[in-house]
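Re: duplicated header lines in exported C-alpha cells

Our pipeline writes sequence and C-alpha cells for each protein into one text file. With two proteins the header for the second block appears twice in some exports. Here is an export where it did not happen, for reference. First protein block:
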Amino acid sequence: MLDADFFRRWIAAAAASVGREADHLTALDSAIGDADHGSNMQRGFKAVTAALERDDPGTPGQILMLVGRTLISTVGGASGPLYGTLLRRTGKALGDAAEVSEEQLAEALRAGVDAVMQLGGAAPGDKTMIDTLVPAVDALGGGFAAARAAADEGALATIPLQARKGRASYLGERSIGHQDPGATSSALLVAALEEASGSGDE
C-alpha cells in the first residue's frame, strides 16, 4: 500500500529531477516552444516543495491536490494548468484514504490524464505530454518500472511527430525531429514514481 510518505517521496523525487533537467527541458523548448519550460517547471516544483513543508497534508489525495493547486498558481504558460489538472484530478480520485493500492493509483492517474486530455484537447499522437502519460498509465499495472519504460518510450516517440497542439503546432512540419518538452517532463514525473518506490534500486 502507498501512504502519504510515499507520495511525499514521489513529489520530492520529481522536484529534484526537474531541477537537474531544467536546462535540458528549456533547450528542448527553445527548438519548438518559448524556451521557458524548464525554468517554469523548476519554479513550480520549488513552490510545491515549500507548500508541502508549510501545510503538511496528511493523505495521498490531499498531497496531490495541494501540489496541483500550487503548480496551477506558479507555473507559467500552459504547463501549469495541465500539470495542475493532472495532479489535482488524481488526488480527487484518491479521495480521503490514508493508504491506496498501486491499482487505485493507476485508476486515479487515468482519471487525471483524461482530465488533461479534456482540458487541452490533445490525444495520443499530437506530440504532447499525453504521448508519455497514456502509455505510462496503461503500463502501470505491470509496476512502476514498466510505467517508467513506457513513459520514456513515449517521450522519444514524439521526435518524428508533427505537433498538432500547443505552441509547437504553429511550426507545422518544422516541429518534426524535435522531442516534445512536455512529454519529456512528464517522463520525469513517471520516473520519480519508480524512484519513490525504491524499485529502481533493485
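Second protein block, exported in the same file:
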Amino acid sequence: MMIRFAAIGVLGLLTLAACEQRQAEPAAPAPAAEAPAVQPALADILTADGLGPARIGMTRADLVKAWGDDAQPNAVGGPDSQACDIFHPAKAPEGVQVMVQDGVLTRITLARGATIKTDRGLGLGDTAMAIKQTYGGAVFAQPHKYRAAPAEDLFAWSKGGSTAYVTDPAARGVRYEIGEDGKVAMIHAGDPSIQLVEGCS
C-alpha cells in the first residue's frame, strides 16, 4: 500500500513539474494578421479614379500600354493634341473616350454606345431623378451650359470637390451630363477636367 502511495506521489510531482515547465516556456507568437487584399479595379465599373487598368493620373505611355493608342489617329481630338487630346483607345471598351492633358490621363468619358456602369450602378439612359436619389445630398446640380432644362450637369465628388468650381488636381469626381429628355447622355469621371464642357476647354 505504501509503495502505491509513493508511486502516486512521485507521479503527481512529475506532472506538477511538467506543468510548471510548460508555463515557464514562452508562448508561441500569435500569427500576424494578414493584410487585407487590395481590391483590383474592375474592368467594367467606372469610378472617379478610373476604369479597369486606366487610372486617372497615369501617363499617356502607361495608358497606351494598357488600352492601346488612338483608334482613329487622324480624327480631330483637342485643339492642341500635345496639351490636350481626346480619343478612343484601340482596346478600350466601346463608347469609352479618354482625355489626356500634358501627357497625363485626366478624364474618362462614357459616350454613345457605352454599356459600362458607374460604381453606383448608373449608366447612359438612366434618369436624373435616379442619380439624385442614389447620391442623395452628395450630388450637386448645375444648369447645362447649352441645353434647356431639364438638361443639367450633376456632379458627385468623391474627393476634394465642392459646389464651387474645383481646381485642386487631386480632386476626383463623376459628372452625369443630363440631356433635354431628363436622361444621362454622357458620364465623365476623373479630376477637375470633368467640369470642362467644350472638350478641352
